[in-house]
Amino acid sequence: SILAALAVWKGMSPAEDPLKQLYKAERTLVVDAVRTQGAREGLRVLRERIKDPTVASMCHALAHEAGRIALQYEGFEGALAIDDDICGSGYIHGIIETHFTSLEDPAGTARAFCKPKQARCFHGLGHGLMYASQNDLPGSVAHCDTLAERSDRIQCTEGVFMENFGADTENHPSEYLNREDPFSSCRGVEEPYKGVCAFYVPRYYLLQHPQQYLETR
């Protein structure tokens, strides 16, 4: 995960990392609000918390957490009815990726899941395919490739690669993520998806090597 990567960079175990402890505390605030007062309140709490720049850097991941819990307490249609783009649509992505883990045939469902050119939905679909397949990167890309529209295929693979490079290394690791050679995830991937993958490589590298911008070339 992003926080685990920062912990490694600092020479700490993830359990000792203050950023990970902060993330857990912020997650508890947001998730408890969703559980006890509903998703709208949880997202309101998140908006308040991300006024802190450090918490803002965790925004997308926290919004994913809100979406996952909203699905559990409000159901798929109820959770999606709260159409909130907060934190790069992380809330919507969290709903979709978690919903996919409950499906008997997530790959088959993928082709009919989103309406054409619904970018947020297809991005979330990519996350969901990875979740449902235990981070099967080639398989998830292959399923994205079955979508009818090119733009939808691109959005779907963006979700796939974002999930790969942000994988929870403790609970949901990706065997296709190599800290020493981040671009290895992109080798063997055909265009246009290779370019999508390459977009996330510098971001992943900089999480482990802050401010080393020239080395990302």
Name the beta content range.
under 5%
Largest pleated sheet: none
Topology pattern, helix = H, strand = E: HHHHHHHHHHH
> Low-confidence parts, pLDDT < 50 over ≥5 residues?
1-12
In round numbers, the mean pLDDT is: 82
Distance between the termini: 23 Å
Quaternary: single chain
Counting DSSP E segments of at least 2 residues, the number of strands comes to 0
Shape: globular
Helix content: 55-70%
Radius of gyration: 17 Å
Description of the structure:
- It is globular, with a radius of gyration of 17 Å.
- The protein is built from 11 helices and no strands.
- Helix content is about 65%, strand content about 0%.
- The protein has helices at about 1-10, 20-35, 40-50, 55, 60-80, 85-100, 105-115, 120-130, 135-145, 150-165, 195-210.
- By secondary structure, the chain is mostly helical.
- α1 (about 1-10) packs antiparallel against α2 and α10 (about 150-165) runs parallel beside α11.
- The model is unreliable at about 1-10 (pLDDT under 50).
- The longest helix is centred in the first third of the chain and has 22 residues, at about 60-80.
